[in-house]
Amino acid sequence: MCGRFTLVTAPEKLMSRFHLQDIPFEWKPRYNIAPGQPIPAILADGGRRRIGQLRWGLVPSWARDEKIGSKMINARAETLREKPAFRRLFERKRCMIPADGFYEWKQMARGKQPMRITMRDGEPFAFAGLFDTWTAPDGHKLYTCTIITTRPNEVVADIHDRMPVILRPEHESAWLDRDRFDAEWLQSLLVPYDPQAMKAYPVSAMVGNPKNDRPECLEEAPWS
């Protein structure tokens, strides 16, 4: 699964990397992003990319209650076209979630060791995601998203049995294109990222508490 990630990249660099015209909300570095929180997400509308904030934890438009979102922070790539909650979104409501690292917990003899996984070059990347809009009984709208996961690559396999889908830069525009839907081809993008481009290192147990959203979360820590 993917249950925590980071985004500390400077906004100017993020805009350049993802071809954004602006960031229409207050930007601040995030060291320990958790489900249920608003997260940056990139969509394309008429060929133009825009970034906004969606709540992490998908609430499908047909849901009776928004509480379902806490159970839908991730969507398995292998079953996207089988699950009613995801099948329609896979066709028309694809998004990207920018990040520069994510956390997983490695089982050790003395307990679980939190690990941060990043690109070797430290550059930001994009998770493949899906989004939807839910309308509450009182009429207010809730915009939410989920992060797609796949089997782990060689870097993550020693830590966890799932990893988030990281899109290759050359596939990002096609993933966002709402007018293009080739199910087989899009499905072929939902695979583990090149392990040669990634690395993992141990971090402090403080990341286990989402209230700890500070730079120390990123620092390499001794093995437990």
TrEMBL record:
Keywords noted in UniProt: Covalent protein-DNA linkage, DNA damage, DNA-binding, Hydrolase, Lyase, Protease
EC number: 3.4.-.-
GO BP, one annotated term: protein-DNA covalent cross-linking repair
SUPFAM superfamilies (UniProt xref): BB1717-like
The UniProt record lists the keyword Metal-binding: no
Source species, domain of life: Bacteria
GO molecular function, one term: peptidase activity
Signal peptide stretch: none
Family to which the UniProt record says this protein belongs: Belongs to the SOS response-associated peptidase family.
UniProt cross-references to PANTHER family, sorted A to Z: ABASIC SITE PROCESSING PROTEIN HMCES (PTHR13604:SF0), DC12-RELATED (PTHR13604)
Protein name: Abasic site processing protein
Source organism of this protein record: Brevibacillus thermoruber
